[in-house]
Amino acid sequence: MRSGRLHIALIAALAIYATLLIGTGTSAAAQEMLLHSFRPYGSPPCCFHARTADGFDPFYSNLTIDAAGNLYGTTTAGGIFGYGTVFKLTHTASGWTEAVIYAFGHNLADGGVPEGGLTLDAAGNLYGTTHGGGANNSGVVFELVNNGDGTWAEKVLYSFNNTDGYGPWAAPIFDAAGNLYGTTESGGAYNYGTAYELTPTGGGNWSEQVLHSFGNGTDGATPFAGLVMDAAGNLYGTTWLGGANLCDGAGCGTVFKLSPTGGGNWSEQVIHNFINNGVDGNEPWAGSLIFDSSGNLYGTTTLGGTYLCEGGSVGCGTVYEMTPTAGGNWTEQVIYSFNGGGPGGEDPTSAVLFDAAGNLYGTTYFGGLLEGGTAFKLTLRDGRWTEQVLHPFGASGDGVTPASGLIFDRAGNLYGTTMEGGLYDGGTAYEITP
Questions:
Q1: Neighbours of 337 (CB within 10 A)
Q2: For FRET with 319, which of 49, 82, 133, 434 sits at 20 to 30 Å CA-CA?
Q3: Separation between Cα atoms, residue 369 and residue 372, nearest integer Å
Q4: Nearest by Cα to 190 from 241, 141, 132, 260
Q5: Distance CA 250, CA 425 (A)
Q6: Using CB atoms within 10 A of its CB, is residue 300 exposed (0-12), middle (13-18) or buried (19+)?
Q7: pLDDT digits (tens, 9 = 90+) for 280-311
Q8: 3-state secondary structure of 349
Q9: Residue 333, C-beta contacts closer than 8 angstroms, at least 6 positions apart
Q10: What pLDDT does residue 6 have?
Q11: End-to-end alpha-carbon separation of the chain, Å?
């Protein structure tokens, strides 16, 4: 992952021209609208834990949508206590309005610095994680209970203690029995992260079990991304580092599978080791995997692939497919390599998303015509995936560095967040309309 804030020369005339382009040079039938510009203290923000009415820096916050079309997400910073927020965006006759429904850091026992998005249950309650805070300052899993009157109450379901994990990023997922599953980026037996399960025990309490501690030998290490579950109850995810192959002295990352073996035990299988060979991707970061209808898995890697970026030193990133084969094995294929030298973007850090026709949608953190990242669409034609840029970020007042992925509403509009940019350089929430 590249470090530092992105500095962009914003040229209005070029921005207008850019909205008419896609990766193949034909016109794009999509337009972007800012729903909200997050407002930090000052511009640029004076400090990460600035106490502000609004949150800012919606880092890897994939938005979540409810049945009424309201959008929910998190910011890593801001809020009245300075440790991030949960926000709600409501569509009204005059546009979209934003409200902070919870501000972290009242005493830090409630958690602080939520990095990822949220999970919505059938009752309208929200679940997420914070990277820090909690009883042991190792992060928490929390629930926001919808009181039904416009107010919300936060409850910490579990505080990590480093030995069982530290610093969860992604939102947890539910199984059919109401248990929650997720990952922590460090901590555990080898201090390279864990996969965990939270089980309700009655009376509003939850118990935690470590399903796997990463980092032993050639195992994967540092799972930033969340988990997905198949119909048989197996869990799948990625690790940013670790594995059998080295990239710049560290492991290139893995795709793994966790299977229940009975008696509450689980076994882990690395089903792909990424390799820096000029074709394969490497270092899958915060984007979770997704399934297609045939049981294949799709994901992104921030680096690797066919084309080189950063002065020709590393690959620009990929989208890949994992296909199950006989004997419980899987094969991996890169279906698209990003080319940082063109308008198509580079460094995808988030998950991809399918539409009903089988097209894939996602974002790139950098690159594009204005060097502020892109929202893209991949279409399979004659056995080959081609890219269309739906929107190049980076125009004056627009968001930049879209680290999170995209979601659909019922009408087919796309929604996401950018980490930076907007009217106050605190990040944005946006809509892309076909």
A1: 24
A2: 434
A3: 8
A4: 241
A5: 33
A6: buried
A7: 999 999 999 999 999 999 999 999 999 999 77
A8: coil
A9: 320, 321, 323
A10: 31
A11: 30
